[in-house]
Specification:
Blueprint (H helix, E strand, L loop, with lengths): L6 H27 L9 E3 L14 E3 L5 H21 L6 H12 L7 H13 L7 H6 L3 H9 L4
Antiparallel strand pairs: 1-2
Length: 155
């Protein structure tokens, strides 16, 4: 039986989107632990000296918010929104764009640097949901691609 929809792209995009949201929540949690103190600049260390397990475990982030506490709360709230969107609404018409927009909002409030790169990959993958993959069909022509299609593995 050949499936029409490419569900593997949805799974990959949703998984990466959830990881982006969890990374933002992680950053926000450690920012909240630093309290209502003002950061020294826009580049902050989400993990303060009291919470570090090793000297260089700081999770550097960028923030335009003038308080660790507020920055952490916003990072957690936006991280939750990213997770909800990635799980429930990623396959909608503007799902990929809104995931990228939410992830972009996460970046300047202290959500960290790594999530923005995962968000780009998740959004690009989400644009291919419910579309056939021409690349894999060209790479694996003939009986191999047919057998993959029978299992519904997104080819």
């Amino acid at each position: 039986m050949v499936k029409k929809n490419n569900h593997s792209n949805r799974v990959v995009a949703s998984t990466l989107g959830v990881l982006v949201g969890l990374a933002g929540i992680d950053q926000g949690f450690f920012e909240i632990l630093q309290g209502n103190a003002p950061p020294n600049g826009i580049m902050i260390e989400a993990i303060g000296p009291a919470q570090r397990f090793w000297e260089h475990g700081t999770e550097t982030a960028l923030t335009i918010i003038s308080s660790y506490l507020v920055s952490g709360i916003l990072s957690i709230l936006i991280g939750i929104l990213v997770i909800v969107w990635a799980v429930a609404f990623i396959d909608r018409k503007y799902g990929a764009g809104i995931l990228m927009l939410l992830s972009t909002f996460l970046f300047p409030v202290g959500g960290g640097f790594a999530p923005i790169f995962m968000a780009i990959i998740a959004s690009l993958t989400a644009t291919r949901i419910n579309k056939r993959s021409k690349f894999w069909r060209a790479l694996l022509p003939g009986p191999c691609s047919t057998s993959w299609q029978e299992y519904g593995w997104g080819l």
